[in-house]
Amino acid sequence: MASRLTDRTKDFSGWYQDVIDQAGLAEHGPVKGTMIIKPYGYAIWELIQAELDRRIKATGVVNAYFPLFIPKSFLEREKEHVVGFSPELAVVTHAGGQDLAEPVVIRPTSETVMYDAYSRWIKSYRDLPLLLNQWCNVVRWELRTRLFLRTSEFLWQEGHTAHATEDDAQARTIQMLEVYRAFVEDFLAIPLFVGQKTEAEKFAGALRTYAIEAMMGDGKALQMGTSHNLGQHFAKVFNVQFLDEKNTLQYAWQTSWGVSTRVIGGVIMVHGDDRGLALPPNIAPIQVVIVPIGAEPTVAARAAEICDELLVLNIRVHLDARTELTPGFKFNEWEVKGVPLRLELGPKDLAAKQVVLVRRDSGEKQMVGWDALADTAQKLLKEIQQSLFDRAQKFQKEHITTAVTYDEFKALIESKPGFIEVTWCGDESELEPIKAETKATSRVLPFDQPEPTGKCFYCDKASKRKIYFAKQY
Amino acid sequence: MASRLTDRTKDFSGWYQDVIDQAGLAEHGPVKGTMIIKPYGYAIWELIQAELDRRIKATGVVNAYFPLFIPKSFLEREKEHVVGFSPELAVVTHAGGQDLAEPVVIRPTSETVMYDAYSRWIKSYRDLPLLLNQWCNVVRWELRTRLFLRTSEFLWQEGHTAHATEDDAQARTIQMLEVYRAFVEDFLAIPLFVGQKTEAEKFAGALRTYAIEAMMGDGKALQMGTSHNLGQHFAKVFNVQFLDEKNTLQYAWQTSWGVSTRVIGGVIMVHGDDRGLALPPNIAPIQVVIVPIGAEPTVAARAAEICDELLVLNIRVHLDARTELTPGFKFNEWEVKGVPLRLELGPKDLAAKQVVLVRRDSGEKQMVGWDALADTAQKLLKEIQQSLFDRAQKFQKEHITTAVTYDEFKALIESKPGFIEVTWCGDESELEPIKAETKATSRVLPFDQPEPTGKCFYCDKASKRKIYFAKQY
Predict the structure, then answer these.
(1) Residue from the list A31, A96, A103 with its beta carbon closest to the beta carbon of B71
(2) Environment class of residue B157 by beta-carbon count within 10 Å: exposed (0-12), middle (13-18) or buried (19+)?
């Protein structure tokens, strides 16, 4: 176990892979590009899923389940959609012992199969809004894969709504973006860049795409979630129509929005450090690990009591009672696994009626009397949740720079990891040459836009908007 | 909406399909054999999943996630397994824009892909037992499909454990069967037949298969869950080996066990009646529906208050405030949907400070004063849960018959729906002719076996065991 991690300042990717290995989060499956999510990694996903599901349902959305298999012809109906997804499709041509008359694709996303059903379910304005979500696996065949970030199959939730008016659809698009923002900031302790995507980066078939993006520990961007205003594009293709209050047939206005297991990659790359994973307490499968020191039965007995005392407070606590391993080995293992708080109890602590608490985020140690333990543990878990957010926000602020000219932009891309803020004219044709030359792409157009004052960093035209660029995962 | 159901005494299948349609549980997807689980049906599955997950975890099992895609060669390694599943496989031959060098199958079950990982994860007896479960979709291509009962894709949990000894594996196999029995009887209110399957009916690759089986409203059998002792079959094929305490290399002993969305079909067919679905309160997404009578604002206001009062008791309550529909229409709709308890509140009730409660199971009505409402509602929900079980058990007992000879057996199969109990010699070669002639198959060999006294119902040889036969879904 206690092997060393790759130096993250020299090889961030190598470090990332090491953390996933050594923390026991996931590994590659036998079919290229697939991922096995191991129990510790899956326990994180279960906590993410439960909380995000609760927050999504609180907005009136209910869950359903649509099929894995989609007729190939469905994908081909919406022009931009098929162009966007065709290169990544996995196709079933043979099933039940014979070749299929029409090939079937495995869902890369479920707009088409869901909206075909919506066209049957929605008849009148009384059926709107229709607010559905599903938790499922999707498949996008990838050649270059990386665990959690890009795999051929991944787990996610995809919400799909239909509305009577354009305004309602836009409001829902922004509402779900805000649900994601609040969830990621409060729960994953990851500060975000929130805003609209450029045309070049929007979802295949959307009118407008909005995203939450985070800055990883190497300064690169990771898209953590997206919310799309689909306009009436899909409604027109799949005949999602309703009779309005005046008995006139109208096309519905639609939205879709999703968050995937990819966010676990974000947690690793934002909070991880030289000692491995560091988990925000809100998503830590083990929030407090108890490590008894020495083999005395009185210590073991008291450790078990403390475990029970913390359990009843709804703290996720684990007693590491393995006798064949040294405390040092265990300390290292739970550090790599990112457990927020370690509780040590040895013979001297027993005599002094105290425990030693060690914070994973800062390494700070403190002695705490048994009487104060419950309160202190709860207080520290809250503090660690906040301190991880603060640390990430400080890093983020230190790695946002501003470029006025394209020369400055190129110099910054070369010299300093992070996001670059520029003033941009909005000419989408500029994005491809910028990407080709610098590997940086447009991230988001933030909502808080200053009055357009300056010039475009790239072409000198009158500037329209503030935008962030970065290299991305 | 308020359409009539097919007469279940004349056409049970037609009635089943009508209930699913009219209760809004599910419908067929566009690819043949697939199923869309609609929000109301999925809410039932979420309640089943949450409770079963809790009970599985209480036995020390943790969740993980393994890939949808399995190399075709993996399936082919275990001889019985490949023979069992080959006819039902869906195969991906084309992905990411090109033909695949090795075709990939979509998991019909995950023994092979999981045990390949187990062979890497398990090194020593200290790594055992390994107790994993996953919630996922699986695909078994079917030509004749029926919603919930047999679809090309379905949702389930599959548990997979590895143990150091044969005894441990057998104990786990029986333990999980008991988890299933308790869950289905307590939670789904369905009385069961529990026991071992014959060789003819066991899982492809198992040493022994145990099952819980239920009798549907037409007397036919539905397998509700299975638990397999896999012996060392898969361990030998996938090299799942460990060093025991004496440092000797041993093959692990394994089990697998699963329950699927099929159980929802069981709930429909056991509890449903001439008025539609009847849900046990434990899995009812709506336990109490409130229907205000008339349009008076004071009634609406009091109905909303009552809704809140029941909500805080953790009763799943829904206020049907739709103004465009008559109470009669609503009554019918919630009856078809199987809501256990209907609460009516009209102007007269308001004056009398009472509500009318109507039980879905018995149709029984009672006036209840507001003061007693909370207690009465909770009491009635418990009673309904029990009464559905009792009703199903009574039906079951009335539909178990005993046959001493094969002529009696054939006469019973023709004349009376239900299960037939016989004494059987255990000669597996007899099962195929019995099935061919009568369509009845061996269900389970119950655990409580009498001393072998009689003769085999089929061949007159000295009998070995008591066994149930029935036609099955």
Answers:
(1) A31
(2) buried
In-domain check, residue A134: yes
Same domain, residue pair A191 and A316: no
Is residue B389 situated within a structural domain?
no
Q: Which residue of B has its CA nearest to A95?
A: B90
Structural domains in chain B (count): 3
Pair B374, B447 in one domain: no
CATH number for the domain harbouring residue B439:
3.30.110.30
Which A residues 300-329 touch B at CB under 8 Å? 324
- To test the contact with chain A by mutation, choose from B48, B53, B56, B69 the residue with the greatest count of A C-beta atoms within 10 A, namely B69
If one counts every other C-beta atom within 10 angstroms of the C-beta of residue B296, the result is: 13
B320 interaction partners in chain A (CB closer than 8 Å): none
CB A403 within 8 A of CB A415: no
Is B282 a member of any domain? Answer: no
**CATH number of the domain that B260 lies in?**
3.30.930.10
Closest CB from B64, B143, B155 relative to A96: B143
Do the domain assignments include residue B386? Answer: no
Q: Which residues of A touch B36 (CB under 8 A)?
A: 64-67, 117
* B127/B136 Cα distance (integer angstroms): 25
Which residues touch A347 (CB under 8 Å, ≥6 apart)?
A293, A294, A296, A298, A299
Per-residue pLDDT of chain B (473 residues; tens, 9 = 90+): 445 899 999 999 999 999 999 999 999 999 989 999 999 999 999 999 999 999 999 999 999 999 999 999 999 898 888 888 988 999 999 999 999 999 999 999 999 999 999 999 999 999 999 999 999 999 999 888 999 999 999 999 999 999 999 999 999 999 999 999 999 999 999 999 999 999 999 998 899 999 999 999 999 999 999 999 999 999 999 999 999 999 999 999 999 999 999 999 999 999 999 999 999 999 999 999 999 999 999 999 999 999 999 999 999 999 999 999 999 999 999 999 999 999 999 999 999 999 999 999 999 999 999 999 999 999 999 999 999 999 999 999 999 999 999 999 999 999 999 999 999 999 999 999 999 999 999 999 999 887 767 899 999 898 878 999 999 99
Q: Which chain A residue lies closest to B34 (C-alpha atoms)?
A: A67
Between CA A304 and CA A311, with CA A307 as vertex, the angle to 5 degrees is 140
Q: Which domain holds residue B447?
A: 400-470
- A325: helix, strand or coil: coil
Q: How far apart are CA B443 and CA B473, in angstroms?
A: 11
Whole-angstrom Cα distance, residue B440 to residue B419? Answer: 9
Looking at the structure, tell me whether residues A136 and A245 fall in a common domain.
yes
Report ipTM for this prediction: 0.96
Q: Give the list of residues 6+ apart from residue A351 with CB closer than 8 angstroms, or none.
A: none
Q: Is some CB atom of chain B closer than 8 A to the CB atom of A29?
A: yes
Looking at the structure, tell me whether residues A292 and A172 fall in a common domain: no
Q: Are residues B258 and B376 in the same domain?
A: no
Taking the C-alpha atoms of residue A403 and residue A126, their distance in angstroms, rounded to an integer, is 51
Which of B86, B97, B137 is closest, CB to CB, to A137?
B137
Question: Rg for chain A (alpha carbons), in Å?
Answer: 25
Q: Which of A168, A327, A320, A349 is nearest to A242 (CA)?
A: A168
CB contacts of B31 in chain A (<8 Å) are 67, 69-71, 104
Q: Do B86 and A97 touch (CB under 8 A)?
A: yes
Residues 150-189 of B with CB under 8 A from A: 152-153, 155
Q: Which residue of A has its CA nearest to B39?
A: A64
Which pTM does this prediction carry? 0.97
Among B2, B441, B50, which Cα is nearest to B213's? B441
pLDDT in tens, B87-109: 899 999 999 999 999 999 999 99
Cβ-defined contact of A31 to B70 (cutoff 8 Å): yes
